[in-house]
Amino acid sequence: MSFLLTSNPCVFLLHSEQSICQARASVMVYDDASKKWVPIKPGQQGFSRINIYHNTANNTFRVVGVKLQDQQVVINYSIVKGLKYNQATPTFHQWRDARQVYGLNFASKEEATTFSTAMMFALNALLDKFK
User: Fold this and answer.
1) Are 13 and 57 in contact (CB under 8 A)?
2) Shortest CA distance to 115 belongs to which of 124, 104, 125?
3) What is the residue extent of each domain of the chain?
4) What are the phi and psi torsion angles at 93 (to 5°)?
5) What is the CATH number of domain 15-128?
6) pLDDT tens digit string along 74-119?
């Protein structure tokens, strides 16, 4: 983590964010019409580098996925209090919001475990934040 001395608070917030985990996974969404899991970006199969970032200045968290192949951001999702996270299988985990069901198909059980541990840490920290 690095800090930049500046009068602009946005710059400080940017530099007070740190990754609490990293894993490789395919980022999917559930398509209600076809009743199938599909890549979050149409036509883009393959693994992404998935991080959970913690903004230590305001105790917020987000999931960010970047395609390994072309470095394109495929997901940038704010984790909110009360999010329902489900480990459907040892290597496939999912969560939902009002619009969409998201899924991560991990490269290995170890990477899935690393991610789920960080996700549970984030969800518990958000619960504590609002007590």
Assistant:
1) yes
2) 104
3) 15-128
4) -120, 155
5) 2.30.29.30
6) 999 999 998 999 999 999 999 998 889 999 999 999 999 999 999 9
